[in-house]
Specification:
Structural class: alpha+beta
Oligomer: single chain
Signal peptide: 1-22
Shape: globular
Organism: Alteromonas portus
Helix content: 10-25%
Distance between the termini: 17 Å
Keywords: Signal
InterPro entries: Ice-binding_C (IPR013424), Xrt_dep_XDP1 (IPR049672)
Number of domains: 2
Order of helices and strands: HEEEEEEEEEEHEEEEEHHEEEEH
Protein name: PEP-CTERM sorting domain-containing protein
Amino acid sequence: MKLKQFLSTSLLFLTLNANIYANDKALDEATYTLVNGTGTTRTTNIFTSTDASQGILIDGINVKVSVTAWSDTGSNVTWYADNNWQEGDEDETIQQASMEGYTNCSVSNGSCISGTEAYGYGITNKDSSWYYKSRKGKWVGSEEAHSVDNYNEEGLRDFDMFLLSFDQEVVLTGATFSANYNDGGETNDVTVAGLSSNSLFSSGNEFTWSNVNDTVIAGALGHFDISETKNAENYYESSFTKNLTAAKYWLVGAYNTIFDQSASGSINDVGFKLSSLSIGVEQQTTPPPTQVSEPGALALMSLGLGLVLYRRKRRV
C-alpha cells in the first residue's frame, strides 16, 4: 500500500469515528395536555393564541406553543337543501376551522361515572353539521361530526388537522386520544408532519394540502396507528415509533393521503379527538475531552506504524 493511500484511508476512518460521537443526541420529553377535565361536556382551556404565549416545561426549558385547526373544505359556501348538505365543486382550498373540547361521555346523563371521563379536542369545519347523512345512508351523531377526521361526504373528502407552532424545534413522540372512531384495524390513523414554515397559514392567500406538503421537512413525516383499546386512564394511544426530525411547526391530524406518496385506492374513514402530545427537545451531547474511542486509538497506532515502515523502506 502506498503511503498516500494509507494516509487517506486512516484519516477517513478517524473522521467517521469522530462524527459518530459528535452526532449523539439525547431527548428530554414532557407531556403537553391540551385539555384538562372539568366535569362538563365541553372545555375551553385550549391554547389558541397566535403568539405562542403558552408554555410547556421540558427539563427546565419553557417551550411555548400555539394551536389552530384547519381543513380543506374549499372556498365555496355550504348550504342545506333537500335533506342534504350541498356545496360547490371546489373542495381543496384550506380554511381555518374551530376547535371543540368534549368529554367522551356525560356524568349528568349517566353514560359514565364521575372520574372516568376522557377529555379531547375535535374540529368543527365549514362542512360540519350537528347531524349529517353519511354516504352509508344513515344519520351520524354529533360526536363524530366534530371529530378530527378524513370523512368522505357526498364524494368530497376533507382532511382535518391541528397546526402546532412552537418557539423552538421539538420532536413529537406520541399522543393520546379521548375518542377513536371507525378504527377498522388500519395502520394509518393519524398523520404527523413537521413543516419548515407556517407562513401559508398566515398569508391570507388560498392554499391546499399539496402546497403544505411542499414545506414538509425531510424525516419529519409519519403515519401511525391508534390503539383500538383504551389505557388505564381511559385514553387511546399512539406511539410515533419513527425517529422524526425536529421542527418548529407540526401538523397532527386524521390520516392525510396528500402527505403519503404510497397511498392508493380507497381508504377507510377515521376520526379521533386529541387529548395530549408527547413532546421532546433534542440535547446535543459531546464526549469528555479525554475520552478516546478504541477504533480511533487503533487508527492512530496504525498510522504511526505505517510511517515507521515507510521510513525504513526508504533507507534500504
